[in-house]
Design a protein that fits this description.
By secondary structure, this protein is an alpha/beta fold. It has 13 helices and 15 strands. It has helices at 2-20, 95-103, 118-127, 155-160, 174-187, 215-227, 239-248, 261-269, 278-282, 293-319, 338-347, 352-357, 361-366, and strands spanning 27-34, 43-51, 54-60, 72-75, 80-83, 85-90, 106-111, 135-137, 193-196, 232-236, 252-255, 273-275, 384-387, 403-406, 409-413. The longest helix has 27 residues, at 293-319. The structure holds zinc ion. Residues 89, 91, 112, 328 line the site of zinc ion.
């Protein structure tokens, strides 16, 4: 009995596996309202033609044209079509996590550290055509001053990279260590390099205002990445850490909670994007009845980070800096989602349309994937989410997508579900 069940399981898995890589059949979405960001008016009663995973045409539904043969036609009856959401800062490391992302209409995530090379693995599944995985931009092994002292434990990255093992025994990685970590990441075809300019905030063993990489390590990592045409993201909190990272040439600042106007002006002048990850601070567990001194210290740090982040976002918004939605989430069931981040950004002063843009067009441009993602436009990947109503009226609408489409495949269809 067991072997028969086992055989059925293998056959089922083979069926899933082969269907996972079949090209999507053409799709025609009719009578949709199309969201186009904060600066362009929405389009009404539109038809979107999708073939081979790309958006082929966006035209008014009144225009009569031939559709591709065998196309599946779906009448959206005036529902709202948005580009698939992008989370610019995730730590997703398992299949359950990526399924939760897709179910919520999050079709792209930029990984900002996994403790193995799970992000590189997820990217490989997407690249081979698996339909149940979002597009993951991988960052691989982070460039951090003391890889054996940081939490979470990064030791498995050394096991995956025996040629870097000597770095494990150093007091700090040094200039050549920073360069070698970047080179090994490049061999695994990462999309981004992550550097640590400051310590972590979420653990008491680290101090977010203290420098992590020093200037020479930071510059060495960024120059090595630039030589390989890989953009760099910096984990940084303080004015000193952020400005050192910006001067070294990073493209995005992760967290940046404590930055003040001069640093924000420097970011603006250098075209650096700001990923404030408010959800990470709001997601801290609530205080227990009798908190330990450590819990009290972390809660106080968290409260301070939230307050300063809102001030930094207000200045960044006034100066016209690109603000990007990122969560710091692993997408476990109780973790925040980019929809939470969009709401937090709206609470910080962005309009609802701007907050959604921070997870679509602004994000794709900051992550350098705007030729593929972030808009409903001919030529782009057919990553789209359908909602019953206009989410700029009420951002909670984002929590209940009617349809999630990734590269032209319908991943989730909730059209029949009772509201
Ligand atoms: Zn993070």
């Amino acid at each position: 009995m067991r072997s028969k069940a086992g055989m059925m399981m293998i056959l089922a898995l083979l069926a899933i596996n082969s269907s996972a890589q079949e090209p999507s059949s053409p799709l025609v979405l009719e009578h949709a309202n199309v969201f186009r960001g904060s600066k362009s008016p929405s389009l009404h009663d539109m038809t979107i033609v999708v073939s081979a995973g790309r958006i082929e045409r966006v035209q008014t539904s009144a225009r009569k044209t031939r559709y591709p043969q065998l196309a599946r036609r779906i009448d959206l009856h005036g529902a709202w079509l948005l580009p698939g959401l992008i989370d610019a800062h995730v730590h997703v490391a398992d299949i359950a996590g990526v399924h939760r992302m897709l179910a919520l209409g999050i079709t792209t995530g930029r990984s900002m550290l996994t403790t193995g090379y799970e992000d590189v693995g997820l990217k490989a599944l997407y690249d081979r055509g698996d339909k149940d995985v979002p597009d993951i931009l991988a960052a691989g092994f982070p460039v951090v001053a003391r890889p054996m002292q940081i939490k979470p434990d990064l030791s498995s990255l050394f096991l995956d990279n025996p040629d870097l093992d000597d770095i494990r025994f150093r007091d700090r990685i040094g200039i050549d260590g920073a360069q070698r970590i970047v080179l090994d990441n490049a061999k695994r075809h990462v999309d981004w390099i992550k550097v640590f300019a400051n310590g972590r905030a979420g653990v008491l063993s680290a101090e977010p205002t203290e420098r992590d990489l020093n200037d020479s390590e930071l510059v060495a990592a960024v120059l090595q990445a630039q030589a390989l045409a890989i953009p760099v993201a910096a984990h940084a909190y303080s004015d000193e850490g952020v400005s050192a990272a910006v001067r070294a040439g990073v493209r995005t600042i992760e967290h940046g909670s404590l930055i003040t106007e001069p640093t924000i002006k420097l970011m603006k002048a250098q075209g650096v994007c700001f990923v404030p990850t408010l959800s990470a601070f709001y997601a801290m567990p609530p205080a227990t009845a009798s908190p330990t001194p450590d819990e009290n210290a972390l809660a106080a740090r968290d409260k301070m980070m939230i307050q300063h982040s809102h001030e930094a976002i207000a200045i960044a918004y006034r100066l016209g800096l690109n603000i990007v939605a990122g969560t710091d989430s692993s997408y476990d069931a109780d973790e925040p989602t980019v929809i939470d981040e969009i709401k937090h950004l709206a609470d910080s002063g962005l309009s609802p349309a701007e907050a959604i843009e921070s997870a679509t067009a602004v994000s794709s441009s900051c992550l350098r994937i705007d030729k593929l993602k972030g808009a409903i436009r001919a030529g782009l990947d057919a990553d789209m989410v359908v909602y019953a109503k206009d989410p700029t009226i009420d951002l909670h609408i984002l929590e209940k997508p009617l349809l999630v489409i990734t590269r032209g495949n319908i991943y989730a269809d909730n059209q029949g579900a009772t509201p």
